[in-house]
Structure formats: structure tokens, C-alpha cells
Specification:
about 325 residues; alpha/beta; about 45% helix; globular
Amino acid sequence: MEKSGTLPLISIIVPVYNVEAYLHQCLQSILDQTYTNLEIIVVDDGSTDHSPAICDHFAALDARVKVIHKKNGGQSAARNIGLDTASGEYIGFVDSDDWIDNDMYETLYNLISQYGADISACTHYLEYEDGRPTVYRSKEEIMTFNHADVMKTLFEDKIIKNYVVEKLYKRDLFTGLYFPIGQVFEDISLSYKIFDRSNKTVLKYKPKYHYRIRLGSTTNSSFSPLKGIQYVQAIHEQYQFMKKRQLINDKPVMIIKKSIHLINHTIILPSSTLNNEVIDKTLEIMHQYDYLKPQDIGVSRTIKRYFIYHHFRIYKIGMTLYRKLIPKKKKV
């Protein structure tokens, strides 16, 4: 590595909320980076455990750590404050219950520098709290994407993920852009707008980010109709954005698949104003893709779509009976 004084500043934004059991490991992994010219913006989002004290401890330990304490407003609001505070030429994100390899930001910066990219990315490990072995894929391969290719790949959400973590961005890509407040899947709602401004993206298909799978986290808690409709709306808006710009020709089968999945889970719950609104909003989105034919979405989804549209009450009774006879298996 070059001396830190000759390297551009990277601002790393870490939103924190009640993660005292994991925060030390997270922040220490950032301090231990081989890329040392860092501005570490830790945003305490109104934590009620010992997280605020841990944040302050690390700020006293290393001058690169800047702590902001605020009232609870959600992860999006915390990240947005981080963006407003950041002064680096590059931006990175780390979630406070995760941790990173000590050369992650050196790797990501070198990729941008060597390939003249606007965004660089690596892959991640899945770290399970319940004792299951770590899961990851590593091809030791470097892949580059132009604007059109990366937008299509981002919508597929397989090679380039919609997470804002495990990536490094040029700061100016975020000009005028913020995470939507009050949404669970804020990464999906923002990522495509960021990537739309990039000319070149480079991915090293090697894990450097450790994504912790824990009970009670935002993305891994039990089924919620509200979370479900926010996800469907997010991928619908992403698809419409790309379609309008003629960046994607793929049939939006995934939107129909996720919509039917959401309805199946919602209709077996007790009837409520919220659940009914979720179903109505889901149907509204589904109807925008009525042009999809059986050969596009398959026979099974075509039949389900027909009964949802035309015989909803019968479909609900059938799905409820099905779940009583064949309960959904719990994840182990």
C-alpha cells in the first residue's frame, strides 16, 4: 500500500441500533483495515443498550472514528446522516452486526484504481449464529460491467447484489440521493439509482464481507405483510425504472412469483385493514404485468393468478386448508 497521506479518503458509514453483542467486532475490523486513510462515521440511532458507550469508546481510541448520537429514526435515516457528514472521495457501508476482512477496502480501492471503475464490489460470507457452517462462494475471478450490463445484473440480484455493503462507491454517485425513510428494503430502492450513474463496475468474486444471520435482525425476522409489500414494490419500481430506460428486456417473472408468494402468506393470516391493504396493493402491481402469458410465468402460476383474480374467496379457503394440512416447515 501507498502511504495513507497519498491515498484518497474513504468514508465508511456504520448505522448502529442495539447491537452491543456485535459492535466491538464490527468496529475493530474496520480499524484493522490495511487501507488506513479512513473516516469512520458511526451513527448511533437512539440505542437503548450499551451500544452508545461502545461507540464513544472507539472514538476515544482512534481519531478516525466520528460518532453521531441521534433519536431513533431507522437505518435509512442513520445512513442519510452519515452521507451528509461524509467528506471522503469514496463511500462504503458496513452494518453494525457484521464484520469485514482486514484487506476489504484495500481490495476494493485497488479494483477501482486499476480498472477505472466508479463502483467496486466483492462477495460475502454468510455467518450463521445457530452453529451452521459458514456459506460462501469464491471463484477468484474479476468481472467488469458496463452501465447496461450492470443494471441488468443488479435486477437479477445474483452476481451483483442490491446490498450497499460489500462495495465501494465514488462519492459523487450519491449527489442528491438518499435512502428512503421507513422502508425495510431501502437498499433495493436506492441501489439501482446509484448504479444508473456509473459507467463501469468491477467485481472481485471473492468474499471479504461477513454477513451475520441472526434472529431478530431487520431482514431475517418472521414474515410481515408490510415488509412483503415493501419488497414487491421495491423490485417493481426497480424494474419499471430500467424498462423505461430500455436497460432490460427480461420478462418480470420474479415480480409475479413474489406477488403470489406474498398473497399466499397474507391470506392465511387473520383479516385486518393492513392485511387487506397489502393484498390490494399487491394485486394492483400484479395487474401491470397481465400481459405475461402462461409460457412466461408457467402453468402453476397462471392457474394461481387466475383464481386470485377471479375466484379469490375460493383461493383463500383452499390456501388456508392447504396450510392446515401441510404446515410450512420451519427453517433449521
